[in-house]
Amino acid sequence: MRPQRLEDIVGQQDLVGPGKIIARMVAAKLLSSMILYGPPGTGKTSIASAIAGSTKYAFRKLNAATDSKKDLQVVAEEAKMSGTVILLLDEIHRLDKTKQDFLLPHLESGRIILIGATTENPYININPAIRSRTQIFEVHPLSLEDIKTALNRAITDKARGLGQLDLHVDDDALAFMAGATNGDLRSALNGLELAAQSTPPDDTGAIHVTLTVAEACFQRKALIGDKNGDAHYDVISAFQKSIRGSDTDAALHYLAQLVAAGDLPSICRRLMVIAYEDIGMANLPAAARTVQAVQAAQQLGLPEGRIPLADAVIELCLSPKSNSGIAAIDAALADVMNGHNGAVPDHLKDAHYSGAKKLGHGNGYQFPHDFPGDWVQQQYLPDDLKHAEYYHPKANGRFETQLGEQYQRLLRANRRR
């Protein structure tokens, strides 16, 4: 079911949809090397395959960890003969220096269009020499509707899917398959294929896949009340909103649903988001304790992991709440995204290299630790933003109240008010 054209790709429409960057690159035939990073089964290989199919360029796939420099040489020779080859290099974060040095001139010449695929953060795990010659795009877990669309295509496609079978999949079974893999389409398709091939046909030759069959093939139970495609994410949403609303019993109920479904990854990720998004500055020690509880749960696994998770949920529910942290960073991001970056003041610029002084970099900087109280009045924001205030403290807990008072004192002392 691998897509052959960009139009066939399910999900990732912010990259491949009409008018979006990869679609524009393909339409203009101005491809550049790129790195796609994100969880397994989210479409990295599909995007590479569809780009090749849409441009009619030769498409080759190698693995940076297991394939040798000789394999890269074969691709390079083919590129010299055919003009351009699209190379999907899986696990690009494991590319060693020898292979990297061989690839670099071919990337610069444009003979090889590299599409690197990785589940690791490329800004941390990929060599800067490769990173500087590629565009980096993040792919995200697919939505339930995206996965249901792809599963229905596989059920009806007679050439590449299961359309040659008289296959009937119940709505609740399809919804379960879509939600059971946390956005991993490959796993969802594998589960569908197993269900279809392992279920004996009835007297009429029809294969009937029920929710019970789907659960057996995915080795996971459906969430309680999971009768539609949105149930899984509805429970996660209700879990966060119950903690935000300080309803301990409701939060424990939704936690129990997620524990019963065995969805430890979603619980852990969501709890850490909640701790810093909804409690945050009002009780940062509780946020830190939540991270410890999550780490304990991951070490213990389920069912024992439910104990530290429950402790964290109870504390977060009963803690004062504040979203001032996320509001502050989003306000700052809005300025940056709208082009209000501003130049770094000269006295704050790096002065640790020869010639910096001649440029005026670092001149006039006052080292706070040389002054009483380790503080001195000076400007840190760019001139165009010197009056900006992104953080607006709340007074829902003693912790942030005290920080807020200090924030206001520093604003007044620095004459920004």
From TrEMBL:
Keywords: ATP-binding, Nucleotide-binding. SMART domains: AAA. One of its GO terms (molecular function) is enzyme activator activity. The keyword Nucleotide-binding applies. Pfam families: AAA (PF00004), AAA_assoc_2 (PF16193), MgsA_C (PF12002). One of its GO terms (biological process) is DNA-templated DNA replication. Residues 30-142 form the AAA+ ATPase domain. Gene3D superfamilies: 1.10.8.60, 1.20.272.10, DNA polymerase III clamp loader subunits, C-terminal domain, P-loop containing nucleotide triphosphate hydrolases. Belongs to the AAA ATPase family. RarA/MGS1/WRNIP1 subfamily. This is Replication-associated recombination protein A. It comes from Levilactobacillus suantsaiihabitans.
